[in-house]
Amino acid sequence: MQTLHEYMQVTKATEYIMAAAFLVLFAAYWCFVFGGKRKAHGPGQEGGNHD
Amino acid sequence: MMDQAGNVVTPATWIRAELTLGQSTKDYLRGLITPFNVVAAAVLAVGIPVTINRFVNGLAAATNLTNNSPWGLWIGFDVLCGVALAAGGFVMASTVHLFGLKEYKPLVRPAILTGFLGYFFVVIGLFFDLGRPWRLPYPLVYSPGVTSVMFEVAWCVSLYLTVQFLEICPAAFEWLGFRKLRVWALWLTTALTVFGVVLSTLHQSALGALFLMAPGKVHPLWYSPYLPVLFFASAVIAGISMVVVESTLSHRIFHSQVAHHDPRQMDRLLIGLGKAGAVVMMAYFCLKCLAMAHEQHWPLLLTPWGAWWLVEVVGFVLIPSLIYAVGARRENVRFVRAASVIAVLGIVLNRLNVSIITYRWYAPDRYIPNWQEIIVSLTIVMVGLLTFRWIVNRMPVLRDHPSYEPAH
Prior knowledge:
The complex is a heterodimer of chains A (about 50) and B (about 400).
Chain A: H1 4-34
Chain B: H1 11-18, H2 25-31, H3 35-57, H4 59-62, H5 73-85, H6 88-98, H7 108-129, H8 138-141, H9 149-176, H10 179-187, H11 189-209, H12 227-253, H13 255-258, H14 263-294, H15 304-329, H16 333-357, H17 371-394
C-alpha cells in the first residue's frame, strides 16, 4: 500500500466485509436459536421462609 | 391494616406477622442463626469498622487510590458492574409493558426489586468513593455541568432510581394495605417503563462514554469510539442474565413462596430469556470484533493482553452465547442457567478490564485494590442481599398478595 488512501480503502473494505459476514452469521444464528422442537419439562421443588 | 390472608388486623398483630414473620421476637431472633447469617455477620463485623475508618480518616487511609488512579474497585465494581447487573429492571419492564409479552410478568417485580436495590447500593458505593460525598447532590441542584458526561450519568441514575422506586411501590403498598396509593402507582406503570428505558439507554451508554476521554489510558483492545454502544449492549446482556440467575436462586431460597408456580412455566420463561440472551450476546460479540477491527489492532491479539481480550470475548461472550443457543434450542434450562452465570461473570470482567485491569496497563505504579476496598465492596453486596431477602420475605414480590389482582 503506497498511500494513506489505499491503506484506508483496504481497512474500510475489511470492516465492511466483516460487518456483512456478521449480518449473515447473525441471521443464521437467529434461525438456529428460534428453531428447534418443543418438549415437556421436569418437576419442581418445595420448601420455607426465614430471615 | 391487612394480613397476608386479607383480614383486617391491629398494628401490633401486623408487626408480629410481617416484621417477625409470624414468630415471637425470641423465636425470630433464635431463627436468625443460620450459616448464611453467620457469614453475613462476619462480613459486617469487619466491614463496619472499615467504613468508619474510611469516613473518619479519609480515602488514603482505606484505599490504594492515587491521583494517577483515582478510580478503583469502588467505581469499577460497585458502580460500573452494579449498574450493568441492575439492568434487568428495564429489560423485563419493557418486555412486559412495552413489548406486550405478558407471560413474563412473574419475572418483572423481582427484576425491578433487584434493579432498584442494585442502583441504590451503587449510590452507596459512590458515597464511599467520593472525596466529598456530601456534594453528591451538587450536579442536581447547584452545579450543572451540561457538557459533562458525568453530569448526565448523575441525572440519569438519580431519575432512574426514582423511577424504579415508584415501580416497586405497588408491592410495598399491597404489603402496607394502601389500596388507593397502589392504584395510583399502577396507573404510572407504562409511563415509568418508557421513562426507565430512555434513562437506562442514556446512562448505561454514558458509563462507557466516561472512558472516551482516556484513549491513551485504556488498553487499545478495550478502547473504542463505540464504547457507549458496547456498554449498552452488554448491559442488556447483564440484565437478561441476572434475571435468570436471580430467578434461579430465588426459586431455590424462597421455594415456599413460589411452590404454587408451575415449574415448567418458569422453565419456559427462562428458556425464552435464553433465546434473547443468545442473540443479544452474538450481536455484542460481533460489535466487539468490529470495534477491534475498526481500530486496526489485529497485531495486538498476539500479545499477552490480546490473549486476555480473547479470554473475555471468546470465553465470556461467544461461549455463553452458544450455550444459551443450545439450551434454548434443546429447551434445556440447565444450559440457560449455566450460560447466565458465565455471562454475568463476563460483564463483570469487561467492566473491570476497562476501568481497572487494562487502565494504565503500561504504568509501573499500577493500581491494586487493598483489603479494605475489597471488604467494603463485599459489605455493600452483603447488605444488598440481606435487604433483598428482608423485602422478599415480607412483600408480594415473588408471590401474589391475596387481596389484590395477581401480578403473577
